[in-house]
TrEMBL record, chain A:
Highest taxon in the source lineage: Bacteria
Pfam family, one: Fer4_8
TM regions (residue ranges): 6-22, 68-87, 93-113, 134-153, 159-179
Lineage: Bacteria, Pseudomonadati, Pseudomonadota, Gammaproteobacteria, Oceanospirillales
Protein name: Fe-S oxidoreductase
GO CC terms of this entry: plasma membrane
UniProtKB/TrEMBL annotation, chain B:
GO molecular function, one term: electron transfer activity
UniProt-recorded name of the protein: Electron transfer flavoprotein beta subunit
Pfam (any one): ETF
Chain ranges of the Electron transfer flavoprotein alpha/beta-subunit N-terminal domain: 36-190
Family: Belongs to the ETF beta-subunit/FixA family.
Source organism (scientific name): Modicisalibacter xianhensis
Record key words, sorted: Electron transport, Transport
Keyword Transcription: no
Length: 665, 269
């Protein structure tokens, strides 16, 4: 009897899955067109899955092994079962392989079940709670029905009752794993996820066989040529189709939620919920069936949307509230952590673009800052002619006079901030000690456009960027050095699309180069315990974790790492215009970060970003002191006769001297 | 707050806002003028009022960018009355306002560019024979052709006025701040240009214009013990000393008093 029932079961499940797949694809195709190389994408998918995705999943070893066993077992078992039971191929070898695959899957499912017994709050409940049972049903059912084929049991073992029960179990498993995969069940993540990897919006973010690590963090430019076109994303259908596909791939693991600084601070943002809301919008309906943590302070079930309805309502509620979108600090912690490679920040900025460029609804100080950027080229509304007032006594060489320099020192808007002026002074003194040939743009410099872009004002960003590119085009320089990771990121990764390609260094990287080349000699560190705070725009955005640490090491500082450091560094709360839009929460993000510092017992926290400095110094005492890396280096400078000869020093003696300095207690 | 303005009985209230090209105080870049933008904001916050924007003047590239700043507040078009750069815009505006026949004309107290004398609303009112309200802070209600408004007085005081429409009102910095100007609508909005004969401003042509010289300010030294006194001194407006406050007097008495003052000051001879 099984011989007749199983093929029917398998093929009807496959047929239903195929119908579901077509329906799902049509949901995604509601999005805007976005050309992708179809065949090349599909060909790259296995590598993207096995290397890049698993690189993220493997950060949790236990879950990664569980997933390998379950998913690997399932894929193999499904293929074999279609051959063995669907087509009724009577091969003992295949049957034995199928038994092995289902066993593997069964073991994996047990671990899935174990994790679901007491799941951490970041995991979604609801239908996800039944998934381990379905996995067990499928693996166990297929295992048992395969036993006769493998010749372990006689063909007619058991009664017809047993056969019916087995068929029922297999049907349950098939329902979840084949049918549910394309009809919106938890297994949807496998179907959508695989295609999402193949047709990802940022194919350049994946590693390649040549060892390139793959990084793509710059926002994509909005095309402003067509005056009739709507700017940004108003409705779910305004996303590109592969963005919608990406949202649909979400597996609701909640790793983003666990890392999101805004969520932890009680601001109304949860990256996982946001992605789920986009899925709700894409399919139409309300968020009432969402079974994970809500946006803090916003109960589930009050929002609803449709593919061609607004995401944010001008008045009342729609799919998402505006303050949810404005809570994001664009720190990319969610993107870094997402095993499905979903681009949360892109989506948030796309929606912000609509709010700013079409609604004119940037909250709090947003409008004022944008007006200042338009009228005065800096967010504070200061006189652009007073950019160099801080350096009146420094006699900085101007590009306009020199026209040609080794290093163009990009100062950033920190020139108007008295705290950052101390960092800049320190950096200048270090560059002078190392006899670097540098010059500044002076009053010709403008805001890099970072804040405008994160606030969604793409028009102002592009205006500023184009004018900066034109200014930079007048001069000859080998590289740009800046102490602001935001300018660094924008100059390095976002000006390229507008025609400005430069070699850009964050000052920590450049100082590290100077130290390695023996251009600086430093006194040994005599202070207490030091920790280092990774700026998001240097670390996660640009992968620079090593240079600042190695500068600190050269200073003789043993960095006492915080629990969240490196790629998991917690944001200071200062990115993405968050201090400007200032959405209230239960606590402040910099306070949480200072608590992280406190836990290490460090007396000093080294930073490399003017925003981080401002945010962390805003935390009330008693707290650790905050110093920029440039300040630490400047304090430790030994300016002696040999250093003043500078260039005559050869590299070897320079290095030797540096190690000697490190040895001194 | 203007959203609550009672407007049940003025369906189809016709509001014209006169807007100029502004100038940023720090960088002198062209922009939407602050007070004019506040006037637009006030007009937009009146319930079911048809708002029309009017600009009379030359139109350079800079000017167009600046005028688009008003369109970005959510307005479809600006009526652009093209004038030569040396023209006196008052006659053109009078003709245009007669054609449009708005019940209420709003504008900033003074322009940020050009003469900036703040006289345009008064000249218009004189030509049209309408009353002028200066320093409008809030429109409370408009019923049966009579507007109840709050006028801003120095040091945060407000005076409630009832004015028969049509009228011209000027808006100063005490009015609510203008909403953000959005790029998309600003770009899509239309500048409906209309040619109109320019009347050259002959007086102005004889003037010699030069940038104002910055004068040193005398520091006001306040000797006082308490913070309250220092605050009061800082917030105080210079008292003119003379003058008299008339209240509950007949129109004739009021007119008499004004007439006497004007004679005293040598305005009328």
């Amino acid at each position: 009897m099984l011989d007749t029932l199983l093929p029917i079961l398998f093929f009807s499940a496959l047929a239903l899955a195929a119908i579901g797949a077509v329906r799902r694809v049509r949901l995604w195709r509601q999005g805007r067109p976005s050309p992708v190389p179809l065949m090349r994408g599909l060909a790259a998918m296995p590598r993207r899955y096995l290397v890049d995705l698993h690189h993220v999943v493997a950060r949790d070893k236990r879950m990664s092994n569980t997933h390998v066993a379950t998913a690997g077992g399932f894929v193999l078992a499904a293929l074999l079962a279609i051959v063995v039971h669907g087509f009724g191929l009577d091969s003992a070898v295949l049957a034995w392989a199928l038994l092995a695959a289902t066993t593997c899957m069964f073991v994996g499912s047990l671990f899935v079940a174990k994790r679901r017994r007491n799941p951490p709050p970041r995991l979604s409940k609801g239908p996800w709670m039944r998934l381990p049972k379905s996995l067990i049903a499928f693996s166990l059912g297929v295992f048992l029905v395969t036993l006769p084929t493998a010749g372990i049991l006689p063909e007619d073992a058991g009664s017809w009752v047993l056969a019916l029960v087995l068929t029922g179990v297999v049907a349950w498993g098939l329902g979840e794993l084949f049918f549910g995969m394309t009809w919106g069940g938890p297994m949807k993540h496998a179907f959508a996820g695989a295609l999402h990897l193949a047709f990802h919006r940022r194919p350049e973010r994946f590693s390649d066989k040549q060892g390139g690590e793959g990084r793509s963090t710059g926002l994509k430019a909005l095309r402003l040529e067509d005056p009739k076109a709507k700017l940004g994303v108003e409705k779910p259908a305004d996303f590109t189709w592969n963005q919608l596909l990406g949202f649909d791939a979400c597996v609701q693991c909640g790793r983003c939620e666990a890392m999101c600084p805004a969520f932890a601070a009680g601001q109304p943002l949860n990256p996982k919920k946001l992605i789920q809301d986009m899925v709700v919008g894409m399919a139409g309906g309300s968020d009432a069936r969402y079974a994970g943590s809500p946006y803090p302070g916003k109960p589930v079930g009050e929002h609803a949307g449709e593919p061609h309805g607004p995401i944010v309502a001008r008045q009342g509620t729609a799919l998402v509230d505006a303050e949810t979108l404005w809570s994001c600090t664009t720190c990319r912690a969610c993107v870094e952590e997402c095993p499905m490679m979903i681009e949360h920040v892109d989506a948030i900025v796309d929606m912000r673009r609509f709010l700013t460029l079409e609604h004119g609804n940037t909250p709090n100080k947003g409008a004022e800052v944008l007006d200042n950027l338009i009228a005065t080229d800096n967010p504070g509304g200061f006189d652009p002619g007073s950019r160099m007032h801080w350096a009146a006594d420094l006699n900085l060489p101007l590009m306009a006079d020199k026209r040609d320099a080794e290093v163009l020192l990009w100062l950033g808007d920190g020139v108007f901030d008295m705290r950052n002026q101390r960092t800049l002074r320190a950096l200048v003194s270090v560059l002078r000690a190392a006899q670097v040939d540098f010059a500044v743009l002076g009053n010709e410099e403008r805001d890099s456009g970072d804040v405008a872009r994160r606030l969604g004002d793409e028009a102002t960003f592009q205006t500023l960027a184009k004018r900066n590119i034109a200014t930079l085009g007048q001069y000859r320089f080998a590289r740009i050095v800046t102490c602001d990771p935001h300018s660094f990121h924008v100059l390095k990764n976002e000006y390229g699309e507008l025609g400005g390609n430069y070699e850009v260094f964050h000052h920590s990287t450049y100082l590290n180069d100077l130290l390695e080349n023996g251009k600086l000699s430093l006194k040994a560190w005599k202070g207490g315990l030091v920790t280092y705070h990774d700026p998001c725009y240097l670390g996660r955005y640009n992968g620079e974790y090593e240079a600042p640490r190695s500068v600190l090491k050269a200073l003789g500082i043993e960095v006492e790492e915080m629990a969240r450091s490196g790629y998991r560094s917690r944001c200071c709360g200062g990115g993405g215009g968050a201090p400007i839009t200032d959405i209230p929460g239960k606590q402040r993000i910099p306070d949480m970060r200072m608590n992280d510092v406190r836990e290490t017992g460090a007396e000093l926290v080294a930073v490399g970003c003017p925003q981080c400095t401002a945010m962390l110094e805003g935390v009330v005492a008693p707290r650790a002191e905050i110093k920029d890396i440039a300040e630490l280096v400047a304090d430790a400078l030994v300016i002696d006769a040999t250093a003043e000869q500078g260039t005559s020093q050869d590299e070897a003696t320079g290095k030797a001297r540096r190690t000697a300095e490190e040895m001194t207690p | 707050m203007q959203h609550d303005a009672k407007s049940s009985s003025h369906a189809g209230l016709n509001v014209a806002v006169l807007v100029t090209v502004g100038r940023h105080p720090v960088t002198a870049r062209a922009r939407r003028a602050d007070q004019d933008a506040r006037a637009v904001e006030m007009a937009l916050s009146l319930n079911d009022a048809a708002v029309r924007l009017v600009h009379a003047g030359g139109n350079g590239d800079d000017n167009e960018e600046a005028l688009r700043g008003y369109l970005g507040m959510g307005i479809g078009e600006i009526n652009l009355i093209k004038q030569a750069s040396s023209a006196d815009v008052v006659p053109a505006l009078v003709t245009s306002l007669r054609d449009m026949a708005p019940q209420l004309v709003l504008t900033g107290t003074r322009a940020e560019t050009g003469e900036g004398s703040g006289l345009v609303p008064y000249l218009l009112a004189e030509a049209l024979g309408w009353p002028v309200i200066s320093g409008l802070a809030q429109v409370e209600s408009i019923e049966q052709g009579v507007a109840t408004v709050l006028q801003a007085l120095p040091r945060g005081k407000r005076r409630r006025l009832r004015v028969r429409l049509p009228a011209i009102a000027t808006v100063d910095s005490s009015a609510p701040a203008a909403r953000q100007s959005a790029f998309g609508p600003a770009r899509r909005g239309e500048l409906a240009a209309r040619a109109c004969a320019s009347v050259p401003d002959e007086l102005q042509e004889q003037w010699h214009v030069q940038p104002a010289r910055k004068r040193p300010k005398r520091l006001k030294i306040v000797k006082s013990a308490s913070a309250r006194d220092r605050f009061k001194a800082a917030a105080a407006k210079a008292d003119s000393g003379s003058g008299q406050l008339l209240s509950d007097v007949s129109p004739e008495q009021g007119a008499e008093a004004i007439f006497n003052l004007l004679k005293e000051e040598g305005v009328l001879r």
